[in-house]
Amino acid sequence: MKKLLTLLFVILLIATKTFADEGMWLVNLLDKQLYELMANKGLKLKPGEIYNVEGGALTDAIVAIDGGMCSGSIISPKGLMITNHHCAFGDIHSLSTPEKNYLEDGFWAMNMSDEVPIKGKSVTFLRSVMDVTDIVTKIIDSLDAAGPRGLFFMNRVSGIIEKRFESSLYEKGLSSMWRGSKYYLYFFETFSDVRLVGAPPVSIGSFGGETDNWGWPQHKGDFAMYRVYASADGKPAEYSAENVPMEAKRFLTVSAKGVKEDDFTMVIGYPGRTNRYISSFELREKFEILNPVISGVRRAKLDVWKKYMDASDETRLIYSDKYFGISNYTDYAKWENLCVDRFNVIEELEGREKVLQDWIMSDSKRAEKYGKMLGNLREAYAVKADITKVREYFRESMVRGAELVGLGQRFQGLISSLTRAKKEEFTLEDKEISNFKEIALKALNELDPAADRELFKVMVKYYLNEVPTSFYDEAFVNLLARFNGNSDKLVDFVYDNSILTSKERLDDFFNQKRAISDIAADPIIDVVKTIGVRQYNAMEDSLLKAAELDPSKDRGDYVRAMYEMQLEKDVNVYPDANSTMRLTFGEIGGIKAKDAVYYHYLTTSTGILEKQNPNDYEFKIKPDLKAALEKGDWGRWGTNGVLYVNFLSDNDITGGNSGSAVMNGNGELIGLAFDGNRESMAGDVYYVEGYCKSVCVDIRYVLWVIEKYAGAGHLINEMNIVF
């Protein structure tokens, strides 16, 4: 029962509070029974110590990074923030050069003046939440009465509700739960002066790489540190040398006591998306079509990049961030399918739907409202299956394929904008043209031409094999015919002749007056003309319209019906994750992964030395780290001569939770969530009790790396650490 209730709103207030007489603050979604369950498991805090509208509770130390891409926590009164290394990967990569490769060597600011501002970085603090369901429902009804809903209907609704609270000092955002069954207004503050403080080398932060990703046992030191800055008066502000470290309203105490089996754990963060109200029909589409296409095509893309990365350190630096960004979900799609099959998830959902249909048909009003819903969904997914598969192959092979193609699309976009401006000729004096040239030069600097050429050859083959010729643009058909259908020759011709594949040709093209026809003559244009998703969507719309089906509406009805049924049956339900703050609780423990295989819940530094391999990049460690591990000077951070590295808990997390604080029953930081396990990969659609685990870096290993390995003890001194 517990795991069905673990992904929850973090708002735990027993009391209510009004705001401008517009409604009630969100009340106690963690009911008394559930709170008592947490307390029995080891929670020592009262609800008001976790969240409090007056401030000073744990939630004031929890942040969303970059709008919810990751989570983090404040761990000092001076705005020091900790998150995962993989959440900081792109920032570290952007600062790295062949001469100063912070990815490979790590980065540590030994004083505040060395902390590096990260352009575009932001952290967001939740200040309060309000239930505005009744208000939003009235707004929707009034707008519906005025006419049909448009494409941006909910944007209009959000604008209206946010304007009602424009007197608030905070930013505002409206979120829907259970497909519009409930609405909540979030009040928050976003700080945009965020500076990198410290990050271990990738051989610590990503030790084990793809091989260990989504697996256990792991031995990653997956952490990085930033500092949040504010204006002199403590307000959010853009970067300025005059800004000062933010004075934290609350920061987490760090516990170096360690963990043991069955210890209570609690995670507060910003999980991105789950789909646990998915229908069996939608999941079958994902299982049979989307995941196989994604994992297959993206793996082929990664194989090309890896070949060139392994051959050159310079190329590795170019592609490391891109590779990391793609590989994570590629593996996820593969393991999700294995788990969906292993745990018979589709069959489980079909059983749930039988119960739902019986409940619907037991009431005449419900039967009128929802009676045809499941049948409609079944038919809709059958009708659109073929076009869904074709469209996904198109997207993965061409839209998300070679980088030249994306640049070519922007090049083609110049034709449209120049035509609209009625400019038949142009020069670099035109700002749009000079901007494009800068973009093109930057793109060339961020790819390996040989790797991208080979990648395009692989992607075009997927496109030709899986997408019917009826979807090809005439220009692409003619270009392919010019080489008698030989796609490798087509790609070589494009790369040898396009101005976008050579800095010299790019300079020569733009250093003189040109006409629109000169852009149109570039061979990449004949390729990108065939890249447009509208015809695929139009075919799907046509098929569904002919069958008089609207799966979008039926998907919404499905979730709302599930919600209504569970409420009537007095089942404690939680909404799908949607990048709003959530709490999940669990305990420390291992896992019986499969027959005769049981994994312990802790890994140690010994495992790093056992796995390290100088001939395998993913398991290569620096000589100074190897020496430090062999020396075994754990200082304050070891326990009985052992340094613990990672641990398992059964907290319910998903993407967006990366970097989330893992806390004990006192609300003290004991680790950071950074991964899930391969046995849990169906978790975004269906939670399987006993198999869904959170893989966490032990805070003791983090502290050892900071103090003993990096020599950044000044950061330790900022923290409040209990032993």
Explain what this protein looks like in three dimensions.
With 723 residues, the protein is an alpha+beta fold. The strands form 5 sheets. Strands 2, 3, 4, 5, 6, 7, 8, 9, 10, 11, 12 and 13 form a 12-stranded antiparallel sheet that branches. The longest helix has 32 residues, at 280-311. Among the domains are: 16-108 and 117-209 and 217-251, no CATH class; 277-343, no CATH class; 582-699, no CATH class.
Number of DSSP helical runs: 28
Structural category is alpha+beta
The total strand number stands at 26
Rg for CA atoms: 27 Å
* End-to-end C-alpha gap: 34 Å
Mean pLDDT: 93
Q: In terms of per-residue confidence, which ranges show pLDDT below 50 for 5 or more consecutive residues?
A: 1-30
How does the overall form come out from the CA principal axes? Answer: globular
The main β sheet shows up as: 12 strands, antiparallel
Approximately how much beta-strand content do the residues carry? 15-25%
Helical fraction: 40-55%
